[in-house]
């Protein structure tokens, strides 16, 4: 038999179980046994979703790590391909050589 005040486990009209109600433990006065049951239910729910959450966290971490390594690698690749300063240095040498020729020719 159900505990007093627990209500009928099945809805007499439709024959369905009632839906769970959200309870705010700070507003409603709950017995220590009810609080303990809530903690146990929360722990069971947390443990049930732990493997899925762990897998999702690992995939997210590996994705972020791969993105960081890709950006880092691309940066090194693009800097090693950069010949802009070398071309400027060659033009500067040629300009100095022309200036030296003009100065010696005068």
Automatic annotation (TrEMBL):
Location in or out of the cell: Mitochondrion membrane
InterPro entries according to UniProt: Coa3, Coa3_CC
Main subcellular location of this protein, as a coarse class: mitochondrion
Similarity field: Belongs to the COA3 family.
Record's bilayer topology term: Single-pass membrane protein
TM annotation in the entry: 58-77
Subunit structure: Component of 250-400 kDa complexes called cytochrome oxidase assembly intermediates or COA complexes.
Segments for region (Disordered): 1-26
Main function: Core component of the MITRAC (mitochondrial translation regulation assembly intermediate of cytochrome c oxidase complex) complex, that regulates cytochrome c oxidase assembly. MITRAC complexes regulate both translation of mitochondrial encoded components and assembly of nuclear-encoded components imported in mitochondrion. Required for efficient translation of MT-CO1 and mitochondrial respiratory chain complex IV assembly. Required for assembly of cytochrome c oxidase (complex IV).
Record-given protein name: Cytochrome c oxidase assembly factor 3
Keyword vocabulary terms for this entry: Membrane, Mitochondrion, Mitochondrion inner membrane, Transmembrane, Transmembrane helix
């Amino acid at each position: 038999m159900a505990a007093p005040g627990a209500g009928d486990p099945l809805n007499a009209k439709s024959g369905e179980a009632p839906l769970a109600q959200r309870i705010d433990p700070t507003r409603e006065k709950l017995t220590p046994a009810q609080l303990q049951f809530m903690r146990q239910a929360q722990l069971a729910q947390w443990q049930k979703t732990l493997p899925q959450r762990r897998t999702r966290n690992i995939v997210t971490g590996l994705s972020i790590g791969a993105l960081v390594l890709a950006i880092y690698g691309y940066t090194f690749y693009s800097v090693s391909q950069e010949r802009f300063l070398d071309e400027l240095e060659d033009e500067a040498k040629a300009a100095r050589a022309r200036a030296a020729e003009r100065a010696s020719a005068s």
